């Protein structure tokens, strides 16, 4: 390039280059280096100054755009924080108010977390011990069938016994015309129900579950109602049980329910329409 400049064989500048810029370039390409402009002279030239100002303006514009974006992001962040704060205030205003309610909520969260950990532990134990063999499942199915068969047999026996206890009318046809009918009911107390045939009707195993002849309460705080088969249409049935480690804080009830009563999860025996279908006795 230097040789071309010395021999003046450089290409012509394009037409779009301004005359002033052409002069600067030719001045810079002078064969005599003593006649070339200094850096200060080049930078002080109007065309160069205009270009530098243009570059500076462009750079300032970019910085202004960056600052504007930062400011917009900060405003958006402040708006988000305001929404979060408003939402928190609404939750506090509409949420739990009393210390007692907050304590119940915390206790429920702890119970849920404990149940979750127990479920996870049970799952790990099941994975570690594997699935039951076909023989074990067959034995379990056979036991269920035997229990169901015994239950049906006991129900039939009770129905046969109670059918003998129906009221008998001692009056004759002539006596019925002159005086009211007198019903003499002879009833006998049948033996206790076979514990093996008692099947608890449990709405949700998270409230309670049956283990053999035991009913184990899972939810230590919420209400839970359990009914038992079989359904008794008439006669007298003796039913007994024992409470183990019962807390004195909460009451318990025992009673008789109509066969149409359906008890839901986390409900007492007198909830809703069941109030007209149950007779309950309170512990306190």
TrEMBL record:
What keywords sit in the KW lines? Coiled coil
Report whether Calcium shows up as a keyword of the record.
no
Q: State the residue spans of region: Disordered.
A: 158-191
InterPro entries, per this entry?
Answer: Kinase-like_dom_sf
Renumbered to this chain, the Polar residues biased-composition regions fall at: 159-177
SUPFAM superfamilies listed in its UniProt record: Protein kinase-like (PK-like)
- Keyword Coiled coil included in the entry's annotation: yes
| Ranges annotated as spanning the membrane | none
* Coiled-coil portions: 102-155
Protein name per Swiss-Prot or TrEMBL: Protein kinase domain-containing protein
The lineage, from the top, is:
Eukaryota, Metamonada, Preaxostyla, Oxymonadida, Streblomastigidae
């Amino acid at each position: 390039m230097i040789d071309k400049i010395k021999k003046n064989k450089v290409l012509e500048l394009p037409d779009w280059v301004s005359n002033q810029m052409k002069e600067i370039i030719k001045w810079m390409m002078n064969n005599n280096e003593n006649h070339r402009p200094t850096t200060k002279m080049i930078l002080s030239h109007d065309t160069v100054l205009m270009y530098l100002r243009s570059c500076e303006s462009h750079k300032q514009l970019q910085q202004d755009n960056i600052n504007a974006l930062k400011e917009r992001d900060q405003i958006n962040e402040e708006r988000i924080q305001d929404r979060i704060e408003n939402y928190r205030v609404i939750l506090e205003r509409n949420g739990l108010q009393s210390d007692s309610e907050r304590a119940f909520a915390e206790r429920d969260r702890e119970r849920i977390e404990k149940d979750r950990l127990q479920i996870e532990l049970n799952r790990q134990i099941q994975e570690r011990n594997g699935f039951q063999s076909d023989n074990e499942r067959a034995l379990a199915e056979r036991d269920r069938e035997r229990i169901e068969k015994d239950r049906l047999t006991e129900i039939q026996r009770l129905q046969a016994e109670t059918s003998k206890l129906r009221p008998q009318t001692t009056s004759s046809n002539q006596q019925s015309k002159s005086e009211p009918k007198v019903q003499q009911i002879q009833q006998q107390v049948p033996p206790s129900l076979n514990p093996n045939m008692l099947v608890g009707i449990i709405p949700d195993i998270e409230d309670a579950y049956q283990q053999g002849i035991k009913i184990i309460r899972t939810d230590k705080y919420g209400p839970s109602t359990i009914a038992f088969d079989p359904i008794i249409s008439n006669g007298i049935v003796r039913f007994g049980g024992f409470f183990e480690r019962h807390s004195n804080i909460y009451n318990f009830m025992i009673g008789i329910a109509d066969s149409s009563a359906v008890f839901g999860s986390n409900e007492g025996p007198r909830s809703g329409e069941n109030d007209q279908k149950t007779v309950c006795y309170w512990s306190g």
